């Protein structure tokens, strides 16, 4: 029986690696199709891009669920200095390549920035992949220990939802307010910058957030000791860097402080760089602070 198990495990690992490579290759196919203007003009071209992009995300998220323990051990084996330096190079390269494409091929960059483009599916993969990875590692903890981690999982899930125009689904639930595009919660920044959201409205939003925070605190999900512990750990640098980059993207998108850039605006690729940092933060927590999935 032991011999059979030893045979099955390498086969399963090989199949998992093959599936992951197929998923990454599909992202390459998506990028190539986005470079073809004729394909863009085809009646079903946009739908095909949607299917390839988000079916690939679903495929790779399934791999995260099935291979979370393997991902943890692989990340631990790399060594902190090597994985941090490599990730930093990847984040910088993402920004540089994206901005170069914007300057040299603005129409291609515009296609990459659509919801059926390249940047948004990759962001969704980072956020929901991080949520799944953390959930797989914390679901075996005691309820009191698990709740703060589940709030972090929920934050990753919410960030993923922000990549979806859920206000515009089902016949345009909201769509635009006084002519300002409103697709999800983060568009409140744009409403505030355009002064569509009045000071009274901002106070109401702040009160709602405080009520939600109080409810989470009473239920044991928002634990200040847990927050202090996370902030004191070195891998928190990725969390801070990720949200700093996302903040830059939000400020640029909302045109705060008079920061108005020519179209196509670069916020989507900037968001991808931030999402990469947050994806790495989830990996770091799984590798350094959490037990293997039970």
The main sheet orders its strands as 1-2
DSSP strand tally: 2
Secondary structure tally, helices? 14
Shape: globular
Unreliable runs = 1-8
| Class by SSE composition | mainly alpha
Query: How would a textbook summarize the main sheet?
Result: 2 strands, antiparallel
Task: Average the pLDDT over all residues and give the rounded result.
Answer: 85
Strand content: under 5%
Q: Which sequence of SSEs, written as H and E, runs from N to C? A: HHHHHHHHHEEHHHHH
Q: Radius of gyration, rounded? A: 21 Å
The helix fraction, in percent, is over 70%
N-C termini distance: 22 Å
Description:
The chain has 294 residues and is mostly helical. Helix content is 75%, strand content 2%. It has 14 helices and two strands. The protein has helices at residues 2-34, 37-41, 45-66, 68-78, 80-104, 106-112, 119-138, 143-161, 169-172, 188-193, 199-218, 224-231, 236-254, 267-288; strands spanning 175-177, 180-182. Strands 1-2 form a two-stranded antiparallel sheet. α5 packs across α6, α5 packs antiparallel against α14 and α7 packs parallel to α14 (267-288). The chain starts with a helix and ends in a 6-residue tail after the last helix.
């Amino acid at each position: 029986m032991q011999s059979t198990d030893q045979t099955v495990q390498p086969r399963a690992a090989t199949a998992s690696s093959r599936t992951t490579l197929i998923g990454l290759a599909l992202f390459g196919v998506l990028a190539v199709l986005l470079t073809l203007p004729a394909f863009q003009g085809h009646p079903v071209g946009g739908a095909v891009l949607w299917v390839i992009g988000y079916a690939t995300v679903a495929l790779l998220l399934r791999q995260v669920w099935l291979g979370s323990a393997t991902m943890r051990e692989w990340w631990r084996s790399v060594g902190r200095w090597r994985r941090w330096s490599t990730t930093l190079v990847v984040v910088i390269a993402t920004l540089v390549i994206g901005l170069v494409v914007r300057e040299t091929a603005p129409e291609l960059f515009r296609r990459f920035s659509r919801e059926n483009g390249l940047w948004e599916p990759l962001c969704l993969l980072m956020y929901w992949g991080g949520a799944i990875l953390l959930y797989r590692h914390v679901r075996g903890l005691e309820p009191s220990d698990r709740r703060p981690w589940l709030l972090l999982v929920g934050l990753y899930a919410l960030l993923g939802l922000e990549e979806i125009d859920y206000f515009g689904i089902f016949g345009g639930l909201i769509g635009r307010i006084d002519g300002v595009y409103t697709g999800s919660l983060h568009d409140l920044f744009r409403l505030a910058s355009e002064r569509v959201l009045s000071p009274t409205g901002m106070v109401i939003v702040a009160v709602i957030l405080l009520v939600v925070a109080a409810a989470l605190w009473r239920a044991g999900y928002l634990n200040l000791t847990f927050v202090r512990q996370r902030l004191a750990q070195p891998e928190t640098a990725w969390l801070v860097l990720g949200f700093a980059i996302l903040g830059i993207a939000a400020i640029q998108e909302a045109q705060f402080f008079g920061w108005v850039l020519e179209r196509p605006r670069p916020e989507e690729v900037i968001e991808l760089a931030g999402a990469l940092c947050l994806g790495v933060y989830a990996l770091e927590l799984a590798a350094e602070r959490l037990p293997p999935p039970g």
